[in-house]
Each structure stands twice: as C-alpha cells, then as structure tokens.
Amino acid sequence: MSKVMRVFCSAVILGCVPAMICAQEAAKSQAAPPSQSNSAAAQAAQAAAPAANPADVSSPDAILAATYDTISGPAGQQRDWDRFRSLFIPGARLMSARLAKDGSYSVGPISPDDYVKRAEPYFAKNGFAEREIARKAERYENIMQIFSTYESRHDAKDAQPFARGINSFQLFYDGKRWWVVTIFWQEETPDTPLPKEFLPAAR
pTM (2 decimals)? Predict the structure, then answer.
C-alpha cells in the first residue's frame, strides 16, 4: 500500500447517516435479539464479498502474501481486483499516517473499492512492486495484528527500493478463513528511520 496510497489517498469525510436510515436500523435490531441480528447481517455481508481462493485466505502468511501480490506488477498490467477485494471483510479500511507541511499528521481512511479506483490510473502508467521484509505479529484467538515491514520498488528487479515503511494489518479469522479488517501504514522518512527491531535480523 504505502507509497502508492500516499500518492492517491486523499482524506475521506464520512457524512452523517440520515435519521431515517438510523430509525430503520433501530427497528430491525428490535425485531430480533441483537446477537442473532448482528450475526445474520455479518454473514450476509461476508457472503456478498467476491469468492476468495481458499489458498489466499487459509492462514495469516497466505493472506499477507496475496495482498502484496495483488497490488504488484509492471506498468499497464491489469491487477486482479476481484482477488484483491476477496481478501477484505465488508467494511474494511485502508489508511496511512500522512505528514503535512506543518509537521502534523493526519489519517484518511478509504475502502478497498476506493483504493481500486485511485490505483488503476497510477498502475496503468507506473510499475509497482511491494514486498514484506520483516514481521512482528501477535494473536489472540480469532484476532491478529501484524507489523509488516515493506519495501516498494518500481520494478521487482530494482536494486534499491524507493520507499520503505510499516503496514499494520489487523486480521480476523471467522472459523473458516482469514479476512483483512484494516491496513494502516506509515512510510519511513529521513527523520523517522525504521527501528532495527522492525528490520530483518542481521545474518
């Protein structure tokens, strides 16, 4: 995500939900016990996502590898966006910590569909290859958070990356497959170099 997302990720302002919709949702929640209603809604939303290749979502390793793979490729190569979308749970968000000229930071969350719309024009003209070089992970039952250190190149064969940083993945396991819930990242700068604990171990 990283450098590409910094290029075309603008702030997304979420509008207020109309009162009528709020009232309708409240009525639905009163019609059934909250646990049943929420469970049915979650299952319906997940079923609406593009079908995933089971190999892509079988483990945390697999879903991270698939995420990096789907956004990487030479200039002009059409990405498999259905595969990309299939990795994300409905309602998932992608966002970066963006540095402003005054030294402050902000966050602009977007959806996987927003990412696709903004990425396509860039990928049509630019090569982009991103890979993981180090990882720190923690898991509790069905939830997992991963600090995935990345390197970005215009071509996978480039000797040096043009950007590095950390993608923070939040993952969810529903008992059958893994889902990406959030990808939140920050790019390395001269003033904020990556600490050694987030870099590959010296050999």
Answer: 0.78
